[in-house]
Amino acid sequence: MSALELHGVGFRYATRSALEDVSFNVPPGHFTALLGPNGAGKSTLIALLTRLYDLQQGDVSVYGCSLRQQPRLALRQLGVVFQQSTLDLDLSVEQNLRYHAALHGMPRKLTAARIDEELARQSLTERRRDKVRLLNGGHRRRVEIARALLHKPRLLLLDEASVGLDPASRLALNRHVRQLCRDEGLSVLWTTHLLDEVQADDDLLILDRGRLVAQGRAADLGGDDLAAAFERLTRREAA
Ligand code: ADP
Predict the structure, then answer these.
(1) CA-to-CA distance for 163 and 167, rounded, in angstroms?
(2) How does pLDDT run across 172-184, given as a tens digit for each residue?
(3) Domain residue spans in the chain?
């Protein structure tokens, strides 16, 4: 069964179409990269997958649960890291996580155990009492990943999670998420506009102007030169 399946998903804002007939699968336990230039529709797609926006056309299922028919079951299997950080900078790492768990109605004992586990997994145990304001960008992102995984979702969505990080932290975060995928069997959908966050073995989806223009193993799509393929697929016509 696919971790995520989209069928004919379309979405329009009042004046413009943002997604047209988008269909793809994210296989379980894999790192899938969704690559697209700015304005391609990546954030709109994430907003639909998390039900921030209602589906207008098509359907989405998460591990076989339809977002239209069984939204609660579908969402329960989903963890999300949004592009804009939503951490409270003046709360500690642990307080941020506890607050999130309380909002989701997680029982106290379970919350404490899960926070311990996730902080250890993100190598953040020693920072648990620090205010988030004291953490660098890469560590803040890890706190958001820990938070997204508290309820043990099987699929993690990250919307341009590396934006704003310096190049070294960007690649470290990318490596870290790949490791979660490898070691824990987590399914990942990683959206980005940066080609160097894609590796040859990734399942790659290329989105451009609301349409999926390519999908497959990155090495197969790009041959020797993925950059040239990406450029060709997303080339803008001269004005
Ligand atoms: P990406 O995340 O790939 O940069 P977006 O999903 O943000 O792309 O945007 C897709 C398209 O939808 C763009 O043309 C963008 O200008 C448009 N768009 C995004 N948000 C809105 C909005 N709230 N209202 C109208 N148009 C929007």
Answers:
(1) 10
(2) 899 999 999 999 8
(3) 89-152
